Amino acid sequence: MKPFKEAVFYQVWPRSFYDTNHDGIGDLKGIIEKLDYIKSLNVDYIWISPFYKSPQDDYGYDVSDYYSIQSEYGTMEDFKQLVAFAKEREIGIICDLVANHTSTHHPWFQEALRNPQSDKRDYYFFRPQREGYPNNWISIFGGSAWTAVNDQDYALTLFTPTQADLNWDNPKVREEIKNIMSFWLDMGIAGFRLDVFNTISKIEGLISKDPHKKGFQFADDYILNRPLGQTYLKDILRSLKHKYDFITIGEGMLIDQASAQVMCGSADDQLDMIIHFDLHMLGCGPLGKFDFRKLYYYTNKDFKHVLRSWNHAAQDKGFHIASTMSNHDQPRAVSRFGDDTKYRFESAKALIAINFFNVGSPFIYQGEEIAMKNMDLPFEEWKDFEAKNTYKALQSMMKVPSWIAMKIVKKMSRDHARGVMQWNNQKYAGFSDINPWFKTNDDYEAINVQIQDNDPHSVLNYTRKLSHIYHDYPVFTQGYWSESEVNHPQMIVMKRENNTHCLTLIVNFSKKKTEYKKENDLGELILNNYDSPNTNNIYRPYECHLYLKTLK
Ligand code: GLC
Ligand code: CA
């Protein structure tokens, strides 16, 4: 398998990828069927969002059995085949490890409820109901972080009310997690993406955050990047790395660079790669993703600043970024950062090139390679708990008028990225032959894999080509990263350079035509997102060029 630092990753959200057994729900066999397609993108690893047994309140991030497959996704046999068939194609499978919480349907939780004397009681955080909410923490998805789970008890649920936080201070819990990891590693997987790994430990005593403030408060450093959590995770990684060779990708929820540096690096007990949130939080106010006061306004300079700051940090401090422009929790990349109307293909291509250029490994989220855009969903068709709950909470807790709440949530809803993959122009986009579990985006007849496969200028073929170049020239992954034109309001100009080659990426990251005189002698133009490049120094909207120069 490719070293992770030189690898391209593809994220599959299985429910919407491909349905093979005609129930309108994507499945593991669907991933198997599409392995050659994924391979055609020159992908080295597939990260698959959770497919374990789960009531699906958070679409699999609420696990009720870590050792079995949700039946609508298939069987353990299917999974073993997937690993084997992927291996034949030199593709590694990365599983999602959801270890901050379990579903409240998990037998541990059920036993803890049934029998307060059980040792499972201390797997979670239970508090008596008699004194009201145990603290003022807000749930990441809105409302109190505490859920009344019977007549007497609250349980800490930082995400949906049916995701109960595990108590990592309990060594038995840590042992369970290690066993789960070993189980999947024994099946030959290539590694894990660790779901919200930096929230696993909470402040001692679970004390209220800023108690003088009214209302629920984001617990911030009381739940994020806690030193004990870092130690717990490092212990597990160290002990498993003795036995297994595997990749770890940590989802660092709102992580800062100092914590990224502690947790990610080349030591045996560190994560290999880190997903940060700063790009996705652009234009969000201090209240986070659904801050109704900022309405997602940001400038090009802000965008460049985030990239630059993380690229420098990664390069100077020796960690590696899992670089994403979108994922199953974010709007579609082209809708969020590009222009999903007039310059849809141009901006999608520019974004993919920028993503590949970061100091890290690029991740392509299913559909990004064909420029899938946000869904336009009427409220009745919303599926995402976070979106639905935030819509309510904004109105009830923040007194935001409903039309503004709607506007805000629609902008960032996770549903955008969860529509079915657009394979062809047949009914239901070729995803399934029956009405899928979720709406098919209206534009599938024009935007789909089949059409783009046959078009040499498509986003799909551009992505394939870029991915080839990425693998062909070590400078792409090993070269020193630098940026010029840091203050330019439109242009992004970045380089990677080693002893033998220099790559230069030039992007007009805007809808405006922009005059820009590039440096002379950048070498050969090896990738470009218009049919032919400009010859007059006027960069068209989102025009993007990649040059390669051989130094020796
Ligand atoms: C991560 C997942 C998200 C999930 C949350 C709770 O952020 O990516 O989908 O809802 O963790 O598990
Ligand atoms: Ca199915």
In short:
This protein is of the alpha/beta class.
Structure in words:
The chain has 552 residues and is an alpha/beta fold. The protein has a domain at 479-550: Immunoglobulin-like. Helix content is 28%, strand content 17%. The strands form 6 sheets. It has an 8-stranded parallel sheet. A 5-stranded antiparallel sheet has the order 16-17-18-22-20. α10 (344-357) packs parallel to α14 and α11 packs antiparallel against α12 (402-412). The radius of gyration is 23 Å and the shape is globular. The mean pLDDT is 97. The structure holds alpha-D-glucopyranose (GLC) and calcium ion (CA). Residues 19-21, 23, 25, 27 line the site of calcium ion.
Name the ligand types: alpha-D-glucopyranose, calcium ion
- The dominant shape is globular
CATH superfamily of the domain at 479-550: Golgi alpha-mannosidase II
Give the low-pLDDT segments. none
Using only C-alpha atoms, the radius of gyration works out to 23 Å
Helix percentage range: 25-40%
In the sheet with the most strands, the strands line up as 13-12-11-5-2-1-15-14
